[in-house]
């Protein structure tokens, strides 16, 4: 056996509801999940002693021991595969992929093994693994460190994909994902991890919304913005700016990326008649294409304009000086809203 | 660090154990010969990769395993399944793509899995299995139950990054894992003498700080002894071992393979090296088993495989509803 915990885990619920960033909320969520279930393990590169390069696992190895927070060699296939083996033997591993692009060396194990074991075993085998992936740009890094690979996985049946955009969701969605019996890829907006202005009060005694449900964040009448992850903030800012000019925009946070929960989007489009899908990912064969296809199928007679998209470019993710040009921002979103309104 | 074992003594196996081992090898052989024949009729869908010739490996290793232990297999996985206790009748149905199969007809030859037997699955991805075994081995270590994980993989997979990552992981974490490299000489049509940049796959063990052993894969007793040592060591906390088993597969890479890349080695192996012939000769000459006892096993196995094929042919196909079942745990 590996080393026992150095000391008893701290209780997270003994103090008043704290104000947390997304990064801290994720850390609290991991702590709560580990306290709730001794089968929850954390594994990944530098997650133990260092606490992760983004410090999301900070302090957890110290409190829960090396047998529950495992530093791994640099080997993403090995990490995912090991997690699968642990899961079929009753554990609930939470794997940290250090940066979005580093998931590609583990892609085969996720797509060829993790996604298919339940189906292949007549439903006898459950593989309750969470793969945490810090994703998206905006931190001045380059390709492999700023990517949005979600569409590569949403194309694979058997995986669930979710993305949080705020501290309260970060806290609850991660715990719900860990309790889910299906494999969940958990996409975290890394550029917002430590943004102090986004701090929220996270009440561990509150009742969370369901994990696999999208949510209307702001009601509006002129057009709908549907988005997820780091682009939620951009869309909310756009809606605030549009409101100052008298345009009322509805904003929907998808939260669950696969399977999609599009009923609230259909309902919104039937009201506004216009939809703009916003994502940092390249546009071709992406989640935004899927949304456009399904909305035209379900809401054809309600649409006053084609579904428009604001996305990253169909290029490799660019270095720093081109990043602002690449990423959807307030101006691009508002410009596209204008196009939809004047179609 | 690599050592080559000479043929050992019959070891600790009693008559019952020997007969079990023979039954397993014989079941694999007849199963595979029959799949070969039936595939030629066109009734079996997809691809099949047959294990005939390699029976001593799966049997010699799995005869040491119990319910605590798990194995991961390859695209050539029928033998591993049978040796780990998966029902050959259900397996045959699976290969026929039928609803009564081990995986409901949704896995096929290359994905037969039965977790209730600790069989994590045959695997259509070359090198897909070793990482999974690091996981079950880590689970066994955490649960402190003495269990081990065994990854069977081929000479082709020995060059995959997943395999090398797993060897390293197992050594770093001192896992109760055994890596069995089944070197049948060819990854599809590519010779391992060319594709493996070392004299032996087992030589690579030194680079990962674990023992490496080479055994004659046609000799059940050699495999059994080498696996026994490695598995005992792993159960006692001594960490992983890499065992290279060398032999020849009797059929092509897949059924339909023209095998232009190799010549007379199969005929020679079948005639002079065959694991079943050698086993029978050895145990009867030593007086450990009567020839008649082995003949009885032969008849029972023949009847089993016959009924497996009959049942598989008669079984219902999966439906569209089955296709949409068990993609997720909950919907």
Concise overview:
The complex is a heterodimer of chains A (343) and B (331). Chain A has 343 residues and is an alpha/beta fold. Chain A contains twelve helices and 14 strands.
Main attributes of the structure:
heterodimer, A: 343 residues, alpha/beta, Rossmann fold, 2 domains, five-stranded mixed beta sheet, 14 strands, 18% strand, B: 331 residues, six-stranded parallel beta sheet, two-stranded antiparallel ribbon, 12 helices, 8 strands, 10% strand, thiamine pyrophosphate (chain A)
Architecture overview:
The complex is a heterodimer of chains A (about 350) and B (about 325). Chain A folds into 2 domains: about 20-200, Thiamin diphosphate (ThDP)-binding fold, Pyr/PP domains (Rossmann fold), CATH 3.40.50.970; about 215-340, 3-Layer(aba) Sandwich (Rossmann fold). Helices cover about 35% and strands about 20% of the residues of chain A. Chain A has 12 helices and 14 strands. Chain A has helices spanning about 20-35, 60-65, 75-90, 105-115, 115-120, 150-155, 165-180, 230-245, 265-270, 285-300, 320-325, 330-340; strands at about 20, 40-45, 70, 90-95, 130-135, 160-165, 185-190, 200, 215-220, 225, 250-255, 255-260, 275-280, 310. Helices cover about 45% and strands about 10% of the residues of chain B. Chain B is α/β, with parallel strands linked by helices and about 325 residues long. Chain B is globular and about 50 Å long. Chain B has one domain: Rossmann fold, CATH 3.40.50.970. In chain B, helix 1 runs antiparallel to helix 10, helix 2 (about 55-60) runs parallel beside helix 8 (about 220-235) and helix 5 runs parallel beside helix 6 (about 160-170). The interface of A and B includes residues 73, 87 and 91 of A. Chain A: Keywords: Oxidoreductase, Pyruvate, Thiamine pyrophosphate. Chain A: InterPro entries: THDP-binding (IPR029061), Transketo_C/PFOR_II (IPR009014), Transketolase-like_Pyr-bd (IPR005475), Transketolase_C (IPR033248). Chain A: GO terms for molecular function: magnesium ion binding; oxidoreductase activity. Chain A: Its cofactor is thiamine diphosphate.
């Amino acid at each position: 056996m590996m080393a026992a915990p150095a000391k008893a885990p701290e209780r997270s619920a003994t103090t008043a509801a704290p104000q947390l960033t997304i990064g801290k909320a994720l850390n609290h969520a991991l702590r709560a999940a580990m306290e709730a279930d001794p089968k929850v393990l954390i594994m990944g590169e530098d997650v133990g002693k260092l606490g992760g390069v983004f410090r999301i696992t900070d302090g957890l190895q110290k409190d829960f021991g090396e047998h529950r927070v495992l530093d791994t060699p640099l080997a993403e296939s090995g990490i995912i595969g090991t997690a699968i083996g642990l899961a079929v033997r009753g554990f609930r591993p939470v794997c940290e992929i250090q940066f979005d692009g580093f998931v590609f060396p583990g892609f085969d194990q996720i797509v060829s093994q993790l996604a298919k074991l339940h189906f292949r075993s007549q439903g006898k085998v459950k593989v309750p693994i969470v793969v945490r992936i810090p994703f998206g740009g905006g931190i001045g890094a380059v390709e492999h460190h700023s990517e949005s690979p979600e569409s590569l996985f949403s194309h694979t049946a058997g995986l669930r994909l979710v993305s949080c955009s705020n501290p309260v969701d970060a806290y609850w969605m991660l715990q719900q994902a860990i309790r889910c019996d299906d494999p969940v890829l958990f996409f975290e907006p890394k550029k917002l991890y430590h943004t102090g202005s986004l701090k929220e009060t996270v009440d561990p005694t509150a009742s969370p919304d369901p994990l696999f449900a999208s949510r209307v964040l702001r009601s509006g009448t002129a057009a709908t913005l549907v988005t997820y992850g780091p682009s939620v903030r951009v869309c909310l800012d756009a809606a605030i700016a549009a409101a100052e000019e008298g345009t009322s925009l509805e904003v929907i946070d998808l939260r669950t990326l696969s399977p999609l929960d599009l009923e609230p989007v259909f309902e919104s489009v039937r009201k506004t008649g216009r939809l703009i899908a916003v994502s940092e990912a390249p546009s071709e064969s992406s989640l935004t294409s899927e949304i456009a296809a399904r909305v035209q199928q379900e809401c054809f007679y309600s649409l006053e304009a084609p579904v428009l998209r604001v996305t990253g470019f169909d290029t490799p993710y660019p270095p720093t000086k081109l990043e602002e040009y690449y990423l959807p921002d307030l101006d691009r979103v508002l410009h596209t809203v204008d196009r939809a309104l004047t179609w | 660090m690599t050592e080559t074992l000479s043929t050992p003594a019959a070891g600790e196996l009693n008559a019952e154990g020997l007969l079990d081992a023979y039954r397993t090898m014989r079941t694999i052989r007849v199963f595979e010969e029959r799949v070969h024949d039936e595939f030629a009729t066109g009734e079996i869908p997809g691809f099949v990769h047959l294990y005939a010739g390699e029976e001593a490996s799966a049997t010699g290793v799995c005869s040491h395993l119990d319910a605590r232990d798990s194995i991961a297999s390859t695209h050539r996985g029928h033998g591993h399944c049978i040796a780990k206790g998966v029902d050959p009748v259900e397996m045959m149905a699976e290969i026929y793509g039928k609803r009564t199969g081990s995986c409901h007809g949704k896995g096929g030859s290359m994905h037969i899995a039965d977790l209730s037997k600790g069989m994590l699955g045959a695997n259509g991805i070359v090198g897909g299995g070793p990482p999974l075994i690091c996981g079950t081995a880590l689970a066994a270590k955490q649960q402190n139950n003495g269990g081990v994980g065994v990854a069977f993989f081929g000479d082709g997979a020995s060059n995959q990054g997943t395999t090398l990552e797993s060897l390293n992981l197992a050594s770093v974490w001192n896992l109760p894992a055994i890596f069995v490299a089944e070197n049948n000489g060819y990854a599809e049509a590519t010779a391992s003498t060319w594709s493996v940049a070392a004299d032996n796959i087992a030589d690579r063990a030194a680079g990962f700080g674990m023992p490496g052993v080479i055994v004659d894969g046609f000799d059940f007793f050699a495999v059994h002894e080498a696996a026994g040592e490695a598995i005992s060591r792993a159960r006692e906390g001594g960490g992983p071992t890499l065992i290279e088993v060398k032999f020849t597969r009797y059929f092509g890479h897949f059924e339909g393979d023209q095998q232009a890349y190799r010549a007379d080695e199969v005929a020679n192996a079948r005639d002079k090296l065959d694991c079943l012939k050698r086993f029978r000769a050895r145990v009867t000459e030593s007086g450990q088993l009567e020839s008649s006892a082995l003949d009885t096993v032969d008849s029972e196995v023949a009847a089993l495989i016959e009924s497996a094929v009959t049942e598989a042919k008669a079984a219902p196909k999966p439906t569209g509803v089955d296709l949409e079942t068990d993609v997720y745990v909950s919907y």
